[in-house]
């Protein structure tokens, strides 16, 4: 056995399952090494130490004398390092986009397709993107743990069905800004009830602020994994903020994670007065508890509209806290 001639309280379990624990008592720290224990509660460890302190001391001394202590600790360290690495196993992300018409949305798509790959290696994910919505099918989606809609939604019935099935089977989804848009009549009418009313819960687009401006956002659910370590409030990047037909507060399936804080008002610069918000409740990040998803209202960069150029005046991935929120979300979606 691993401990040589030393008594071993557990005799019949292979030493392959070596595990160690650090246990604090009132007076000192024991390095408690047991051969064969796969799962043991701290209360049992404390009890064993109390009853067998002499045995532990003799065992450790014998290990040191026989030059076994360092190799065993090294093996334990390697074992647990391997476990930590396995828990951070890479997951795969696919982002769909259209990238047409609105220069602010196109700007965001280009920015996202630069930013996500830079974040990928350090956060244990791979990132692919495509504007070919025909790839939104079950075979293609099976390669990915997370789907992102950067600026629009699928229009083809077969693509919509594939996405709905993907989500109902536990796939992860992150959507930005215009991915939630629906307005009848428009090029993007509200003709997908499952997506807009059940999945997103927001219904149709109702109005927005203008022009794109930062806002102070308030974290409403501090217990959700994606909001961990975030401050109660923080300043976002510039955005065109949406208002919806449905009140998400009345939907028991929706968990509103962040909303616009009242210190943001007045929000928007106009020139039209109804494009400036002075009060009200506006959710900007939420999840549907029936699905593994998060929607972000962010994703509209400020552009040089006055001069009718494509010059970018702001970037979405420019707020450190907002970036942390997005990465928290991606890790939560990918490591389910």
Notable traits:
8 helices, Rossmann fold, 336 residues, nine-stranded mixed β-sheet, disordered N terminus, globular, 29% helix, two-stranded antiparallel ribbon, alpha/beta, 2 domains
Question: In words, what does this structure look like?
Answer:
- It contains eight helices and 13 strands.
- It is α/β, with parallel strands linked by helices.
- The chain is globular, with a radius of gyration of 27 Å.
CATH topology of the largest domain: the name is Rossmann fold
Largest sheet: 9 strands, mixed
Estimate the global geometry from the Cα principal axes: globular
User: What share of the residues does DSSP label as strand, in percent?
Assistant: 15-25%
CATH superfamily of the largest domain: Class I glutamine amidotransferase (GATase) domain
Q: How far apart are the termini?
A: 38 Å
Task: Write the SSE topology.
Layout: E1 19-24, E2 29-34, H1 42-51, H2 53-65, H3 69-87, E3 91-96, H4 103-120, E4 125-130, H5 138-141, E5 146-149, H6 157-168, E6 172-176, H7 193-199, E7 205-208, E8 216-219, E9 233-235, E10 242-244, E11 254-260, E12 283-288, E13 292-296, H8 320-334
Parallel strand pairs: 3-4, 3-5, 5-6, 6-13
Antiparallel strand pairs: 1-2, 7-10, 8-9, 8-11, 11-12, 12-13
